[in-house]
Amino acid sequence: MKGLRKIAPYVAGAQPQEKNIIKINTNENAFAPSPRVIKALSDFDANNLRRYSSLTNDDLRDALAKNLGVSRDQLIIGNGSDDILALAFLSFFNSDAPILFPDVTYGFYKVWAELFRIPFTEVDLSDDFEIVTSDYIGRDNGGIVLTNPNAPTGIHKTLDEVEKIVAANQDMVVIIDEAYINFGGESALPLLKKYENIFITRTFSKDAALAGLRVGYGIGSPKLMAVLNAVKNSYNPYSVDMVAERLALAATEDVAYYAQVNHEIAETRDWFSDELRALGFDVLPSQTNFILTKPAGISAADLFAFLQSKKIYVRYFGGTTRLSDYLRISIGTQDEMAKVVQVIGDVF
């Protein structure tokens, strides 16, 4: 048939339905959501569902604004950060020059660029998987997208280096995807006071343990928000449902709980990294809730298959050239990761 779109879609991590597994393949949080979230869900009055959800999500934006030290009009809420990022691609990247993003990063960037017919260039990371600042300076572009800390590498770029990129590209929007920032590293939030061209995206899926809820948000200047809201209201004004907004608000109001559990995840991550290094594995320095590792004495493909045979699910990217020797392993509970170390030890 004529006129049908042909595109290679983003491939998400597997969602196995087996019981008694260790599922550490999609960077979900190791802990349950805040008790406040659970109570908010039990208290929710289902009779309210006959009404449309909020158009502006003011309560959630006010709570986020208080936590982040920004104003309400600098925030936009969406159906997961994927929704916010797709909205940003549609809103900000409309020139003939290519947008720039790393060759090893979140795989959806390339998919959106192709879907929305945005020209793009994938910029090579260094041999040790670092984002090279100079590669994004003095180069014609229609915008820049960086995940920081990066995924799937886990490596964090310092705020000083991020600012150099933002300052050098003030005619274009620089998106900083901070999906993992609450597990480590410096946020780009301070740059919002100095530059209008920076847009930060975040999600409740990782640090707030609400991957199944699908709520994310973006932070930027009022100028960028005006463009985003115009585009959003042109195709999906009610993008966040009533239940999701209420539970995300409860999560936002329990900063102490999430600070504690995410600190535990970071500690387990560092312990697990050291255990793998002791086995001879190459482990990239991570500031996220996952690690990227190159196994020793066994191929990544074979270790992936072995772990799966033991009902341990990790992420293997297969034929992706630069990642074919690596596994990405999300950080579960301390007990889960100790079990993973034990099972990997059985290989040697």
TrEMBL record:
Keywords: Amino-acid biosynthesis, Aminotransferase, Histidine biosynthesis, Pyridoxal phosphate, Transferase. One of its GO terms (molecular function) is histidinol-phosphate transaminase activity. Its EC number is 2.6.1.9. This is Histidinol-phosphate aminotransferase. Belongs to the class-II pyridoxal-phosphate-dependent aminotransferase family. Histidinol-phosphate aminotransferase subfamily. It holds the Pfam family Aminotran_1_2. It is an enzyme of class 2 (transferase). Its cofactor is pyridoxal 5'-phosphate. The lineage of its organism: Bacteria, Bacillati, Bacillota, Bacilli, Lactobacillales. SUPFAM superfamilies: PLP-dependent transferases. GO terms for biological process: L-histidine biosynthetic process. The modification N6-(pyridoxal phosphate)lysine is found at K206. Residues 20-344 form the Aminotransferase class I/classII large domain. It comes from Pseudolactococcus insecticola. It catalyses: L-histidinol phosphate + 2-oxoglutarate = 3-(imidazol-4-yl)-2-oxopropyl phosphate + L-glutamate. InterPro entries: Aminotransferase_I/II_large, HisP_aminotrans, HistidinolP_aminotransfase, PyrdxlP-dep_Trfase, PyrdxlP-dep_Trfase_major, PyrdxlP-dep_Trfase_small. Pathway: Amino-acid biosynthesis; L-histidine biosynthesis; L-histidine from 5-phospho-alpha-D-ribose 1-diphosphate: step 7/9. Homodimer. The gene is hisC.
